[in-house]
Amino acid sequence: MNNIRVTKEFKFEAAHALLGYDGPCKNVHGHSYELAVTVIGKPNTDLQSSKLGMVIDFGDLKRIVKSHIIDKFDHAFLVNSQQPNKEIIRIGEPFTNIIFLPYQPTSENFLIDFSHRIRQLLPSGVRLHSMKLRETSSSYTEWFASDNE
To answer: 112-124 burial by CB neighbour count: b if 16+ within 10 A, else e?
Structure first.
């Protein structure tokens, strides 16, 4: 049986600032992120299963990504936990959803984080294949399982 890739796309809005960065992204700014999550596996061949012919139900993949990534990061202010507290108080006053991350809030690091969150939640026989996170219309990062084995 052949392996098939299944992709689901998501969108979320978030603000961040890059601690210690030497360019304009050191300032608070936001993005309309677009995340594509691709899993790989063999289609279900169980004739009694309601998931016959599916690698994963799109709805199941949506629930995993939405509940563990989108619902948490959407409309949040994403901050490196090493940011001095007085700076967070100053720049964070208008924000009610601040997430302190144990890493610099870059697209690259988001994909590493997201890969850990998603991989442990996939059903047996389904593996995370790749992700693509678009930060702007002309800039994106990608994560591939084959690059991380």
So the answer is: ebbbeebeeebee
Give Cα separations from 14 to 7, 26, 62, 73 (angstroms): 22, 15, 19, 7
Query: Which tokens belong to 43?
Result: 């289609």
The whole model's pTM is what?
Answer: 0.91
User: What are the chain's domains?
Assistant: 4-148 (3.30.479.10)
Strand order from edge to edge, sheet including 127-136? 98-101, 76-80, 4-16, 29-41, 127-136, 139-144
Residue with token string 């996939």 = 122
Q: Which amino acid type is present at position 98?
A: I
pLDDT in tens, 44-76: 999 999 999 999 999 999 999 999 999 999 999
